[in-house]
Amino acid sequence: MTTIAVLGGGIGGLAASYYLCKSPQVTKVIVLESSSRFGGWLWSTRRSDGAVFEHGPRGIRPAGAVGHNTLNMVDDLGLGEDILPVSYSHVASKNRYVYVNKQLHRMPSGLSGLLRTVPPFSRPLLLSLALEILVKKGKEDDESIHSFVSRRLGKELADIAVDSLCRGVFAGDCRKLSVRSCFPVLYNAEQRRGSLTLGMLLGSGPTAVSPPGPLAQKSLTESWAQWSLSRGMESLPESISEYLQQSGRVQLHRDAAVQQITPAASGWKINLEDGVISADHIISALPAKALSSVLPPSCQPLIQSLQDISTVTVAVVNLEYEGYILPVAVRTSQTHTPTPTPTHTLDGALQGRL
């Protein structure tokens, strides 16, 4: 009989518990969430008039093994009918704006956008891709995303497009983020093919494979760029929580902040404010600094490594417009701002109810 404790009831902890309760080797799963709700970043406000505002992510990309796994889980949870897909051909997928030098610029899209010079860039992006083939492979085991892209595609592309992308996706600074960790496909393309362009054309080596279920297969057939849920992204953690409760193998605990983790003769002791829980194994889905504060002193090297991981605060602003005040291109777009000097940035994505 194996008991596993999952620390954190955000989408990471809930997803881990979902897969654990399907394993015949696991007898019991205990989820410990410090707040009064499950879901973490996936948090939606639903109004009586049908409007939905997201406090966190507004959609999920279906690509790759992770994307297929997620859609397989959504299908299993019975959320398939609630999916709101956005295809690559949709205007919302094509409209990407970057705010540079007090001006709003539409990012190049399609073949014509690659062939001609589109402000704020000083040359066609296709030229950067063609010249990239001639760049020698890097010798370092890892480097920052900014350094990697500057070396292979030019500093301008790194300063404007990639910097904005990293702030939108990772809420981080591309000058500090690891290319090997954040963009392993690009790193592997250079390592195996010596070029990003050749890697995209010929493949960058073996990748994780997850067989697509019916919903994931539909996303491939219809070329989904991303998807959301009709009642908001919080529907996903709500459905997972309900699934876990009905499984009979998972205990869900709210307002259960972990005070300390200590090794026991067999497994671990987890100290809470109102008691102690025993588990054979622990899976942590806590932020790095939160985990570092509850580990035993014997884990000092790990504690230090966790404390060295920097974090930022992310604010999501939803703006509601009545009627068709905004041009259609702006109503269905995302706008990003690269790093100014000093490094304070507002990375915005407009979400309007029209």
TrEMBL record:
CC cofactor: FAD
Recorded metabolic or biological pathway in which this protein acts: Porphyrin-containing compound metabolism; protoporphyrin-IX biosynthesis; protoporphyrin-IX from protoporphyrinogen-IX: step 1/1
Cofactor binding comment, as recorded: Binds 1 FAD per subunit.
Region (Disordered): 334-354
InterPro entries on file: Amino_oxidase (IPR002937), FAD/NAD-bd_sf (IPR036188), Protoporphyrinogen_oxidase (IPR004572), Zeta_carotene_desat/Oxidored (IPR050464)
Limits of the Amine oxidase domain: 11-323
Protein name: Protoporphyrinogen oxidase
Organism in which the protein naturally occurs: Cottoperca gobio
